[in-house]
């Protein structure tokens, strides 16, 4: 299905305030990386080939298309000096050490989510082929709580926006951490396929086993590619390309959302993969080659000089530019020493993904994708094939320890139900929309009634819209 290359129209969303947010002096998440990226994009002259767009901050109403009202209300009113309120809400909303309450938190969330929503709307309007929001990609946030440095799941919101027009959306995640928040949100629908390439085993968030494959109508539409530490460029591409190619050929999405978490780069402060700058960018280049409307988002990345290098490099890939390896003068030039190059080399480290393990994962995932009926969402999936054994541990994967439990499936009901509810009202001849669709023609589902109906019951039961 790979298409011939053509020049792409690329829209770029950024807001100066995003890079000024501060999680705390010891926190590994540093929004300054967004300012560093933007500064490199400008000083390389990439702005001349980009449509620089103004983002519209997301409103509480827009955030509540996925998140619970009480959680949005909490984020909107909480501040660092409300110590008693934070202490009372710590367990309910999972705020604390990993997800601190900092000054300007809600404004940061609103801008980040607004960038992804604005980018999705520009794609829907047909004004661009690729839309970029490096401040997005916060894939761990759940319906009613923060998780993994993420508060608002801009990805889910953007996908829901794309589903207003498109029949099928593919989500690909190349962050080193499993894209659990997005997978959970769409776990029971076939209108979104999620595919995550991540470190698995004794690693946050602990989900993303190869046997996690969706439930109900979404069975087989959650694809997990669990990898081990130290994976290099060649081995990553050896599994990334065949899996993505098979998904594109069978699922045939109308749009693709690619989360480009840069913590999968070699030398990341919290990571343990060994991808070079070129290896990470090759994944973006490959997804771009299918010429499907593409939303590029940021994500993790904690060695911030390398995050800026990667996202600048991938902005250049989006516009089809070759950048000089010598970095231009910029406001953060001193941070890029000692090389001052647009380069993140692979380190000398052991790749724990041996040939037998990679072959096992690749074969298992490709076999699972055979259950996907090409370009036919809402077709009932068949049963999965018997489990195979991990060649190293000998453990059967996919039988017995089934993680598709009721509680986890319920976590995704709101987004999945909304996605399927929008299917019924989509006009057959609607291929584009206005730049700011308001959703007035969309029949929404009573989410509260749905949760009450499924609480303690069959989590695969689906409500009427």
TrEMBL record:
Residues the record marks as active site: 140
Region (Disordered): 377-443
GO biological process: heterochromatin formation
Cellular compartment(s): Nucleus
Composition bias type Low complexity, residue spans: 413-425
GO cellular component, one term: Rpd3L-Expanded complex
Domain Histone deacetylase: 27-316
A Pfam family annotated for this UniProt entry: Hist_deacetyl
Biased composition (Basic and acidic residues): 386-408
Record's catalysed reaction(s): N(6)-acetyl-L-lysyl-[histone] + H2O = L-lysyl-[histone] + acetate
Entry's EC annotation: 3.5.1.98
Molecular-function GO terms, alphabetical: histone deacetylase activity, hydrolytic mechanism; metal ion binding
Binding site for substrate: 98, 148, 302
Annotated residues for binding of a divalent metal cation: 175, 177, 263
Keywords attached to this entry: Chromatin regulator, Hydrolase, Metal-binding, Nucleus, Repressor, Transcription, Transcription regulation
Family stated for the protein in its record: Belongs to the histone deacetylase family. HD Type 1 subfamily.
Protein name: Histone deacetylase
């Amino acid at each position: 299905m790979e298409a011939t290359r053509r020049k792409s129209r690329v829209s770029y969303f950024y807001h100066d305030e995003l890079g000024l947010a501060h999680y705390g002096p010891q926190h590994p998440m540093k929004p300054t990386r967004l300012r560093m990226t933007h500064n490199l994009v400008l000083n390389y002259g990439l702005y001349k080939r980009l449509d620089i767009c103004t983002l519209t901050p997301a409103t509480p109403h827009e955030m509540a298309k996925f998140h619970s009202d009480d959680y949005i209300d909490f984020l909107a009113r909480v501040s660092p000096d409300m110590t008693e309120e934070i202490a009372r809400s710590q367990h309910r909303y999972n705020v604390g050490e990993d997800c601190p309450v900092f000054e300007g938190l809600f404004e940061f969330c609103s801008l980040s989510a607004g960038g992804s929503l604005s980018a999705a709307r520009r794609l829907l309007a047909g004004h661009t082929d690729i839309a970029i929001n490096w401040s997005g990609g916060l894939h761990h946030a759940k319906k009613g709580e923060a998780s993994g440095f993420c508060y608002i799941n801009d990805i889910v919101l953007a996908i829901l926006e794309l589903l207003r027009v498109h029949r099928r959306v593919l989500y690909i995640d190349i962050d080193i951490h499993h894209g659990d928040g997005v997978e959970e949100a769409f776990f029971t629908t076939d209108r979104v396929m999620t595919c995550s390439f991540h470190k698995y085993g004794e690693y946050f968030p602990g989900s993303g086993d190869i046997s996690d494959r969706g439930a109900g109508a979404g069975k087989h539409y959650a694809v997990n590619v669990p990898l081990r530490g130290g994976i290099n460029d060649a081995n990553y591409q050896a599994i990334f390309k065949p899996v993505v190619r098979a998904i594109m050929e069978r699922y045939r999405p109308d749009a693709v959302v690619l989360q480009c978490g840069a913590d999968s780069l070699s030398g990341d402060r919290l990571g343990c993969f060994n991808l070079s700058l070129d290896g990470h960018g090759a994944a973006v280049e490959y997804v771009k080659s299918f010429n499907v409307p593409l939303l590029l988002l940021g994500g993790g990345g904690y060695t911030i000089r390398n995050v800026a290098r990667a996202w600048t490099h991938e902005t250049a890939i989006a516009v089809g530019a070759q950048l000089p390896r010598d970095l231009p003068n910029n406001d953060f030039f001193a941070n890029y020493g000692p090389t001052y190059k647009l380069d993140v080399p692979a380190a000398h480290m052991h790749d724990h993904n041996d040939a037998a393990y990679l072959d096992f994962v690749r074969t298992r995932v490709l076999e699972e994708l055979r259950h996907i009926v090409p370009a036919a969402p809402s077709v009932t999936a068949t049963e999965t094939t018997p489990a195979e054994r991990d060649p190293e541990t000998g453990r059967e994967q996919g039988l017995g320890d089934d993680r598709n439990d009721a509680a986890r499936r319920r976590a995704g009901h709101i987004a999945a139900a909304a996605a399927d509810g929008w299917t019924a009202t989509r006009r057959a001849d609607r291929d584009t929309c206005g730049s700011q669709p308001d959703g007035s023609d969309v029949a929404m589902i009573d989410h509260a009634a749905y949760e009450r109906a499924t609480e303690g019951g069959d989590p695969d039961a689906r409500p009427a819209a």
